[in-house]
Amino acid sequence: MTATLIDGVAVSRATREGLAARVAALKAAGVTPGLAVIIVGDNPASRVYVRNKVKACGELGMHSALIEYPESVPAAELLARVQALNADPGIHGILVQLPLPAHLDGAAVLEAIDPAKDVDGFHAVNMGALATGLPGFWPCTPAGVMVMLDHYRVPLQGAEAVVVGRSNIVGKPQALMLLARDATVTICTSKTRDLAAHTRRADVLVVATGRPRMVDGSMIKPGAVVMDVGINRLPDGKLCGDVDFDSARQVAGMITPVPGGVGPMTITMLLANTVLSAERAHKAGRKP
Ligand code: NDP
Questions:
Q1: Reported pTM
Q2: Which of 201, 195, 145 is nearest to 170 (CA)?
Q3: 119 and which of 240, 264, 273, 276 could share a cystine (Cβ 3.0–4.6 Å)?
Q4: pLDDT at 1
Q5: CA-based nearest residue to 198, from 212, 210, 187
Q6: Residue in 190, 240, 243 to alter for ligand 1 test, most ligand atoms within 8 A of Cβ
């Protein structure tokens, strides 16, 4: 058996088409969704990410503000800027590109963002909302995985879902999202005793470890849906996931490739959260 490929580029395109219509409706009502992206220092990977986010906003007709600081920026200056953006009615989403330089307290900066504009969904208020089923913003990468699962009509209710990895930005929120859809969820970590025994039970397997190709076909239940969140750069410059794609696709029923799987959905979900934030602000009568 060769697995069906879950095409993140196609799902992303379809999702953005839906968003474009919502942006047009907001603009007709006098509201242009606005995203502020803050970057500190010159980490080359971070620069590429923020450039892509700003470009994606433009393509959808959204407003974006790129705010750049040198590595040496004092914490107080950065926090004051976040506060100003919190109060700016033309900005509906605020994103601080991580990682921040070591002298800055990343958690304090993220917590300074108004939860109503925290379109990355990293604020404790939004994580709490996800855990308790209240409206908020969901972290983009695991939210993108859910959109892909729905796009391919993967049944989740009662399914055995196994998430490998427990980071605050992927594994933990992913497990909560699957739980909210009535899957039976297991979370595995680096301390899990027999990882393969868990992964082999999974109808839906999400892998987010940052360990290249660590889950291979022998660890996958025949017919399972495999969502590979990993993005790893190999010494030869090529990208690979946390799943060994070649062996896994012989066993799985559906699988995401890397690149072209989960990756393209992350920025799309950032745009989706920003549009949602603008819609909420408009509904609440906050004037841009
Ligand atoms: P983190 O390093 O924050 O977390 C990795 C998690 O994997 C930890 O919980 C760790 O366990 C667990 N882990 C590590 N080794 C093993 C192992 N051998 N067995 C079981 N669990 C293990 O990574 P992130 O969650 O931030 O990212 C994970 C991957 O996803 C990376 O490749 C990253 O590049 C990619 N990524 C992709 C995104 C996208 O846009 N598609 C966005 C974000 C991330 P423990 O807690 O015990 O240490």
A1: 0.97
A2: 145
A3: 273
A4: 72
A5: 187
A6: 190
